[in-house]
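Incident log, entry 3
Record: Platelet-activating factor acetylhydrolase (377 residues)
Problem: checksum mismatch between cached and fresh output.
Input:
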Amino acid sequence: MYVYFIKGTFLRLYYPCQASENPQLPDWVPCREYFNGLADFMKMNRALSERIFNYLFGSCKIPAAWNASFKPDGKYPVIIFSHGLGAFRTLYSAICVELASQGFIVAAVEHRDESASATFYFREHAEPGTKKHPSCDIAKPLSDNLEEVWMYYRPLKPGENEFPLRNKQVKQRADECIRALDILFDINSGKSVENVLQCDFDLSTMENSMDLCRIAIMGHSFGGATVIECLCKDVKFKCGVALDTWMFPLDEEIFPGVKQPIFFINSEKFQWIGNIIRMKKLDSAIFPRKMITIKGTVHQSFPDFTFLTGNWIGRLMKLKGEIDPHIALDLSNKATLAFLQRHLNMDIDFNQWDALIDGKDDNLIPGTNITIPQSSI
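Fresh output:
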């Protein structure tokens, strides 16, 4: 995990690691400020919702070893992951852990464009030693004269036009993903990378461990829009996987500039005609574009929330669809791996799931479940 100052980069890094006995498991939600951010985003009372969220999720751990020893095994392809509106870097661990376990280095970025429910950075404090950091045990700064500054989700102002805000945010998000990739390039080349957080992990063990000819960008919802913006901005991204993408923030003028393969994986309940039409505007006779829809899924079938609530609360809060969330995410992950093998030219066995890319499964719909009027195409 790396935090710089406000212009820096904040990410959680998932990587193949050495097996260890009794590993430390990181908290799913790192500190209570994130619960406050979720409350703001959901327009709930902070004090009440913090108790509810703490009861539901406070003890949840991510099934991955914290600061485990890196497992050197040739060169690993790289994925940058972008979260959705109101989310933050830890909420897609089921996807990121699976990809890392399959031999990818995955950097889950936490965006500072005021689209995350909460995030923070450090600034220098005038009086050294006066600022404590009790809230985030695993995110303490190296220096006592640094203080946390929290940044919460920015709601739309009354009467505000939404597009200029979202368009500005998606451009900043893409820049943050590219900056995260630049940091991975530095780590891979053995350069010293400044981390203002206390960290026991030795970054030098990752030198020459990344296959920087095989880089993908992936994201959910607003993160899906970020995928498309990134592909347009940086050709180092060889392909993109866009999960239930919210197309609204994007300038359609950039679409012809996207030359890389894109895989749209959609939920059944979130999409609508206008959004799908915008996806279809990226169709190309030259560059591969694929789309599938997972039956019985909702928009929140991709973040971890779908696993952490019972059926009643999950359905009530639209965190669960009608399909078993394990089946849904397994289909999404396997289809993603098959697509990445195909377009990153990997010599591995993910092509066993190639049929999923074309929607060939009882729980998949090839393309979309949305009927688009012929006149709209």
